[in-house]
Amino acid sequence: MTDQSITLENRPMGQAVLRGFQCKCPNCGSGPLLKGYLTLREECTVCRQDLTPARADDGPAYLTILLVGHILAPLLHVFFTTFRPEPMVMASLFGVLAVGLSLFLLPRLKGVVVAIQWARYMHGFGRSG
Ligand SMILES: [Zn+2]
Prior knowledge:
There is one protein chain. The protein has helices spanning 13-21, 59-83, 87-119, and strands at 34-35, 39-40. It has a two-stranded antiparallel ribbon with strand order 1-2. The protein is mainly alpha-helical and 129 residues long. The protein has one domain. The chain is elongated and about 55 Å long. The structure holds zinc ion (ZN).
């Protein structure tokens, strides 16, 4: 599959973001996007989409912090006002929740960032080849 006649319509953003969140190639949706936990593959193993133009940098980490904070902060308030648990229970529970949710979201948000870049032809994703 080549990118000889690419247009914006060929790369729907919603589909690409969904595939990215599933850590799948934004082009075909079947090949794995990452090898290991966070390392981006150089190309898709199924459709040979070149993934080297991706520049996720710190974006996924910022998005992870933003989401985890906005999910857990209100939950922390509601949990405390409702149950009034011991401080160590609160610290233990929300510490585990924050780490777990961050580890879950980080690779998925990296997939989303790469998928957005792919869908909008950023950083060389528009070049055929
Ligand atoms: Zn692919």
